[in-house]
Amino acid sequence: MISFATDKPTDYLYDSGADVLYVLFSGAPVVRTIELLEDWPLILVDVDAEDKVIGIEYAGIKQFGAYDVGRLLRKRDVLSPDLADQFSAYLQTPDAEALIAK
After folding, report:
1. Helices and strands, number each (H, E), in the chain
2. Domain tally, the chain
3. What does residue 60 show for φ and ψ, rounded to 5 degrees?
């Protein structure tokens, strides 16, 4: 089962043209990428060799919002409710919201 590499993000990157937020947890090499939501919105998770989440890429964050991602992940049964709520919380931090608001 996946878990986060750190208890809080280390950096946030936002591409306004593509409406993609990337939340970084570690600089470790990406071993594989997991598609949590594969249609729209698109949510990809980069994990390291120990299956620790080192990054979350969320395409469509302005359209779908950070608040709904936990509900979507629970509804599609791709993560436990606790982990889905953690994902949602990381996308709603003041740092993330400031980037998206620009």
Report:
1. 4, 6
2. 1
3. 100, 20
